[in-house]
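Q: What would this complex look like in 3D?
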Amino acid sequence: MERSNVDITNLQIGFGGLKVLENLDLHVGASEFLVLLGPSGCGKSTLLNAIAGLIDVKGGEIRIGDRDVTWAEPKDRGIAMVFQSYALYPRMSVRKNMSFGLKVARTPQDEIDSRVGEAAKMLRLTELLDRRPSELSGGQRQRVAIGRALVRHAGVYLFDEPLSNLDAQLRAELRVEIKRLHARLGATMIYVTHDQIEALTLADRIAVMQGGVIQQLDTPSKIYREPVNRFVASFVGSPAMNFLRGRIVRDGGLTFIAGETGFDLNGYAFRSPPSDAPAVLGIRPEHIEITGSDHPSSVTARVEMVEPMGADALVWCRLADGTAFSFRSDADASARSGDLLALRFPAEAFSLFDDQDGQRL
Amino acid sequence: MSATALKSGRPKRVNPARWGLYAFILITALYFLLPLYVMIVTSLKPMAEIRQGHLLALPASPSLAAWVKAWTSACTGLTCEGIRVGFFNSLRILVPSVVISITVGSLTGYALSLWRVRGANILFGAMMVVAFIPYQVFIYPLVRVFSFTGLGQSLATIVTIHTIFGLPTMTLLFRNYFTSLPVELFKAARIDGAGFYQIYARIMMPMATPMIVVAVILQTTGIWNDFILGLVFAGRDNLPMTVQLNNIVNSTQGERAYNVDMAATLLTALLPLVIYFGSGRWFVRGIAAGAVKG
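A: Here is my prediction, written as structure tokens for the whole assembly.
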């Protein structure tokens, strides 16, 4: 199977006077699983449709497998695509749905049969081949849609929110199936989603988008641990990252002061030398730990409420000045609302952002 | 939901308002059925019985003689071969007109809805405006156009005319239906490499069955009932049934053969009636399918 790289340079897309994407660059390596992640309206689907050739671009260049396809027809780009609404042809059987593209391309019948058979086996669709889409469940329909893409033996597979129409359980199942498929085929995949869990679990690299701009393009763990700005930090991760407003103060060591509470910044890797300025401290709920009150840098907070979540519990607290935050504790932890807790905020896990532009410090 | 649940939930009380409603429906039904009844009984009576003037009376000895005469030997102008000539003329006009107008209309609707044709909205708007202009306005210019192109009055001319006048409605019907389909279906077909006509013929039209049924009904009744266009454009040899019926009814010498007139009229109305009764279920389903997606 062919595995193409995708190179997008200086891409511009607009509808009328509205600019959706401007000067966008993106390079996807062969066999890479890239996820475009962002809220609705951020331009991620537009970008995917442009790669597919389903919308016209205003400027820039799209290369797939080192071939300039900026103005090529969708069928000539060596791509296959899976849609959110499945988009199965309702009047055709599963088999016909999967072989339609090959028939149009005048592939010999025995080749069609072997490719459809292979894809059906891979996706456990063999028994369903003669059914109509209306006789299938949502999960089965989406598997057929994936199968229809696979038989094309494309260089790049595009997924446009393929799991968004499914219920939570099916979504988790199919997510694993897609990941397995990628591992098995080693195909290049570009996957659009607004679900950060999907992005974190599937991606080799994630491009977090907002307002038509790629905010951060990195591995899932980098995106999770070192978000480059407040948007990325707040969009990725569930439960969401805590943000405390305050300022950085230099008093021998470096301290972050939020209200009356000080947080030791010793151990935080600053990108540039820190200055005395208003800032926002971000920390994920799972990085805050309960500690003894004798710990030198412990912070005291009052428990407001506890949300049990099965494997663990989310504890909502307030600092002395009223700033709210949450942290993750063991499910059997004995925190009760009203308790006073001593907590440790490890500086290595902080993300500090400029209060003005939201960029990481 | 089970039937018992429905039954127990509904109060069974017929109030005066409901009686009023039933009375209204009954009177309306009678109003429309009475003429039909008179036509049928009259067509089954001999002239001697009709002359007695008992309009509503059932025929003493029902006879199909008038029907046979209307079909085979009533005089439509100079020839006396019955209305069957008109029936087959109408059929020869109807079939190609319906097929071609639906094909052209659905293709136009498909192009205007799914392909981003430059100026599609203006084009569509113009077509809708034209649909509201009374077509009497076009008749004389069109006569000139067709005589200039040498087509004159012929079967081809009347089929072309019906196709043109059916275009706005057919386009509207199919455009709205195709717009209601998920656009991703169209995108998927494009990625599968299907072209303009392949997507039309292999993806879109098979899905449009309910719309095709609606279109067939609309066009069949419209074209079958047409009088003026057929009279003007079909030519002497292809005059449709409606024109022939008019000749039978309005150009009789001597005593007016009411029974033959009635029979001829019923024969002319037969095809639209069959279409309506035969496809009413489909008609409703088609309209509903256009309204809600899927």
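A: To summarize the key features: Chain A is about 25% helix and 35% strand. Chain A touches chain B through 25 residues (CB under 8 Å).
Q: Very helpful, thank you.
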